[in-house]
Prior knowledge:
globular; 58% helix
Amino acid sequence: MGLKERPYILFVAELIYSKICEIKKNNPSFTNINAIEGFIGTETYKTISSGKFHDMWFEDLKKNNFIDSNTKKKIPRETLELLKIQKDMVIKQLMHIPSLYYTKSHFPLEVSQRAFDHLWRMCESYELWCKETKQKKLIILNIID
């Protein structure tokens, strides 16, 4: 999605952002809130929230001796440590409990609200990075405005 080399820590945010944009594009009447809620429960969400996404990513990196396939540069140990921290944080914040998204009163449960808030912050972070790197055409949801 990004034109310029983006920090690895934004890779997951970029993936989430692109999937939420896709949901919104396919449902023109959706607000950003609807699109983020629609993302919760998708296969991509389940793969990320379970930690499988990071596990597969780390496995691919390990197979390539931690050489980035795009830049052909070795990924620094510090970056790998940050990605492990990101994985743990994502698992905790996006905890998935099927069929418990809403209570009977139709208000999100605390766990679901935490996941929603985290997804919103990840989208904000991605848009801020796009703005800071002068890639404003990648900003589709306009969360930061």
